[in-house]
Design brief:
Blueprint (H helix, E strand, L loop, with lengths): L6 E2 L4 E2 L8 H4 L1 H4 L1 H4 L1 H4 L1 H4 L4 H18 L11 H14 L1 H4 L13 H8 L4 H11 L10 H14 L35 E10 L5 E6 L23 E5 L14 E11 L2 E4 L3 E6 L5
Parallel strand pairs: 5-7
Antiparallel strand pairs: 1-2, 3-4, 3-6, 4-5, 6-7, 6-8
Helix pairs in contact: 7-11, 10-11
């Protein structure tokens, strides 16, 4: 067969002459990187279905980790007795810098937004390490592990987290996630509780002043700087003797509806209030 009559039977094409030797067949287009590039060697080309089991396995492992490692400080990781010990240790070693109420002084606050920003989402071990290695400021790492754990229990309780049946131990720190603090349940009202009430101011015997038709005392918000209720706040049936009301120009508010915040003092047959806030809510006591 002559070269000019060469046929490719499968295609039914006649290919002749110099076309076999021409640069079009040997040119770089046939040997270029498009044919040998990474797209042809990547896993998507060799086995595009292999990624599916890998993705499923990853999702399953994440779900299992979330279930097994999902313990948080809200799950009762300390006991009430441990938190009580921690309160004493905190008062002696920490309150000078962080304040007794954890509100922060020369040291940062250990509650509310500062606590959440610093520790929320981390393992409880991060908080333990901070306390155990850097506190107190004048004698770092002098507390010992057990006292540090007790202080952490106190801090968690003050951030609104519940106690549980087992004490917090160093072995239990890993895998316990810290959450933002929660509002503490208000303590029961008792003698020397800090409270707020609304009532009618009237003169009493021997130049005293009474708050009559007063509402039941409640614990004020920690952020309260002024009356949290309006002039329509309901009155009640209680009577409180106000201590040192004369210093607050009580005579100018006789017969008015007043908001009072202070310490509750309970005596046999009488309840008294010191005054730290004293504000008029209505010019009369009509309920």
């Amino acid at each position: 067969m002559k070269p000019q009559e060469l046929r490719i039977a499968d295609c039914g094409l006649r290919i002749g002459g110099p076309a076999f030797r021409g640069p079009a067949f040997r040119g770089p287009a046939f040997r270029g990187p498009a044919f040998r590039g990474p797209a042809f060697r990547g896993p998507a080309i060799r086995n595009p279905q292999s990624a599916i089991p890998v993705a499923i396995a990853a999702a399953i492992s994440v779900a299992v980790f979330a279930q097994e490692g999902g313990k948080t400080v809200a799950d009762g990781v300390f006991t009430d007795a441990q938190a009580a010990r921690g309160a004493s240790a905190y008062e002696a070693a920490c309150a000078g810098c962080h304040r007794a109420d954890l509100g922060g002084n020369t040291g940062p606050a250990l509650r509310d937004q500062r606590f959440a920003r610093e520790f929320a989402g981390k393992d409880l071990k991060a908080l333990f390490t901070r306390v155990a290695t850097t506190m107190p400021r004048n004698a770092p790492a002098s507390l010992g592990d057990n006292v540090s754990l007790d202080i952490i229990a106190h801090v968690l309780k003050e951030n609104g987290f519940p106690a549980g049946p087992r004490e917090l131990t160093a072995d239990a720190l890993d895998g316990v996630r810290v959450l933002p603090g929660r509002p503490k349940p208000p303590p029961p009202i008792g003698d020397f509780s800090y409270v707020e009430v609304v009532g009618c101011l009237v003169p009493g015997p021997q130049q005293t002043w009474l708050l009559t038709r007063a509402s039941a005392p409640v614990v004020p918000s920690t952020a309260a700087q002024s009356p949290p209720v309006g002039s329509d706040a309901s009155l009640g049936t209680l009577t409180f003797r106000l201590i040192d009301a004369i210093a607050y120009a009580a005579k100018d508010h006789a017969g008015q509806k007043m908001y009072v915040r202070g310490l509750l003092i309970r005596l046999p047959g009488e309840e008294r209030l010191t005054i730290s806030a004293f504000e008029m809510m209505s010019p009369d006591c009509a309920d």
